[in-house]
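Figure S4 source data
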Amino acid sequence: MLEQSRVVRKLTKDEITDLISEIKLDPKWVKHYDGVTALQDGTTLYLQQFNQDATKLIFSNFKKYPKTHAIIKNIAGDAPLGRCYWHKLMPGDKINRHDDSDQLHVINGSLANRYQIYLKGDDNFLLEMDNAVKSSKDLEFSVVDFALTNTHFYQNNSNQPWVFLVFDVLHKSKS
């Protein structure tokens, strides 16, 4: 696993347009998880869902989001994709401080990378990653190789939604 998160690259103008256009398709945003999780606030739009240890595909909605799928595949290369979802934090929402080292796909070694794409940065979007506060403005329209086993936290102190894409890339031999 990564010791520190890192920006892989900035999105192109076309990628930004494609991602924004597809999340505006009147999607069904749902609660992230019915059990106890750090993501109690906000809603999730699942593009692809796996079981807890990333060994069985539950469903994929990529046919509805082909441009997003193409962007994700471009980043992942020929490695298999795991769970992929958009998360939206409304004003006042937060994701509690946590790390993801206890997730089964981390423990069993099937996860190669977790990427996050932040569509917009704002001085009122509080982001803590790698145990330090980061500027969400610096990560705007960026693909981040996310060190998920380090502590992270999100707080939307703005008056607008904060939306970001999260997707897991699995090891070829573990898929």
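Figure S5 source data
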Amino acid sequence: MRKVLALDNPVPGVLARHRPAEYGALMLGSEFCARQLPSPGEAAALRRVFPGPLILATPVLAQRDLEAALELVRACARSGRLEVAANDLGLLEVLRSRFAGKVKISCGRLLSHRVKIMPQAYGRDFLARYGISSFEIDDETVVGRLKPYGLPFSWHYPFRYATTTRFCPWESHWASDCSRSCRGRLEPLRSPRLAKTLWLRGGAYFIRGQRPRSWAARNVYTPPC
């Protein structure tokens, strides 16, 4: 079982706080907000202090965000081993056509929920078309539906995704422009109408309290800040 450290605040000083030597891979970016993708320079700085494999977590992407994500993929793929956790069909198509055999691809958490409801024959064709090698998950209810595909699971903890938005909760505007004011921040949202506290991180809301799973091929830890 491999351990992966996931950072949405890609600063070498933040990495150093979390004992990077204990992890077999580093995940950067976000599956829920394109504004949280690192710049090529930020990714390169972390490459210099973390020699292991790099995983880029990527969300659903608008066209300009797709172009920026591809620039980041090109830069990272040149400098070492790279995996992309993908949730966007357009990104998958470009990875298939331009990066086949050069970049490993995992099925992101949002996309895994779509695969879960696909007819199995269609799902197998879909996974084979894009060369998807694993599933990113944080919800055990999907395991039974995805297990027949025979791919390993990456389990995310301690935060379980609940929902997301393109209207930035931190800056009160649509996520076209961004000063990245959410970086390194985590906000609890409590209400008597909620059975559990929601945690706001980036452009998504999470439930906190998950533990690592021994059956997962790798456990992906996202520190609180």
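The domain at 2-158+210-221 is CATH 3.20.20.120 (TIM Barrel). The chain has one domain: 2-158+210-221.
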